[in-house]
Amino acid sequence: MELKVVIVGGVAAGPTVAARLRRLLPEAEIIMIDQGRLVSYGRCGLPFYLSGQVRDISQLNATAYGVIRDPEYFFKEKRVRMLNRTRVLSIDRQKKEVCAENLESGERFAVPYDKLVLATGARPVVPPFARNRLKGVFFLNHPDDVQDILAAIEGVDEAVVIGGGLIGMEAADALVKRKMLVSVVELREQVLTGVLDRELAMALVNRLEERGVEFYLGEKVTCLEDDGAGHVCRVVTNGRSLEARLVIVAAGVQPNVELAESAGLSKGTAGAIAVNEYLQTGDPDIYALGDCVENYHLVSGRKVYTPLASVANRQGRVLANNLAGWKDSFKGVLGTTVFKVLDFNAGSTGLGVEQAREAGFKAVGTLIAAHDRAHYYPGSEIILLKLVTEEGSGRVLGAQGIGTGDVGKRIDVLACAITFGARAEDLTKVDLGFAPPFSMPMDPVHNLANATSNKQKGLLKGISSLGLKAKMERGDDFILLDVRTEQQAKARPIDDRRLKVIPLGELRDRLNELPRDKEIITVCPMGARSYNALRILAGAGFKDVKSLEGGLQGWPYELD
Amino acid sequence: MELKVVIVGGVAAGPTVAARLRRLLPEAEIIMIDQGRLVSYGRCGLPFYLSGQVRDISQLNATAYGVIRDPEYFFKEKRVRMLNRTRVLSIDRQKKEVCAENLESGERFAVPYDKLVLATGARPVVPPFARNRLKGVFFLNHPDDVQDILAAIEGVDEAVVIGGGLIGMEAADALVKRKMLVSVVELREQVLTGVLDRELAMALVNRLEERGVEFYLGEKVTCLEDDGAGHVCRVVTNGRSLEARLVIVAAGVQPNVELAESAGLSKGTAGAIAVNEYLQTGDPDIYALGDCVENYHLVSGRKVYTPLASVANRQGRVLANNLAGWKDSFKGVLGTTVFKVLDFNAGSTGLGVEQAREAGFKAVGTLIAAHDRAHYYPGSEIILLKLVTEEGSGRVLGAQGIGTGDVGKRIDVLACAITFGARAEDLTKVDLGFAPPFSMPMDPVHNLANATSNKQKGLLKGISSLGLKAKMERGDDFILLDVRTEQQAKARPIDDRRLKVIPLGELRDRLNELPRDKEIITVCPMGARSYNALRILAGAGFKDVKSLEGGLQGWPYELD
Question: Which chain B residues are Cβ-neighbours of A73 within 8 angstroms?
Answer without folding.
Answer: 505
